[in-house]
């Protein structure tokens, strides 16, 4: 199974509360992540123990320039941000290099896989003993 890892503990709470539903990665990562792919969402550093947050499915993978990111793209990555300059500063901290509006990024949107969602029944899916 592929892993979608986050390094910062700051994201643990946002992920667990469903406030972070995307990640913006520098470069074209479309070869690494695919729509409908199951991934394990974790937090931790390379060569260290990592915390499993949840299993997820990738809903969309979009490659675009930083300047073409919408405020919604940015907010789904980090609920505290809305503007390009905030995201650029954050990416520079993560990647340790200058990031510009012309840089290519990959937006990976994902949804948590829940084994038995509350109130989710076969009848709602239109299968089983549901009557019309």
UniProtKB/TrEMBL annotation:
Gene3D superfamilies in the cross-refs: Hypothetical protein (2.30.130.30)
TM helices/strands, residue ranges: none
Domain ASCH span(s) in chain numbering: 4-114
Protein name per UniProt: ASCH domain-containing protein
Record organism: Patulibacter brassicae
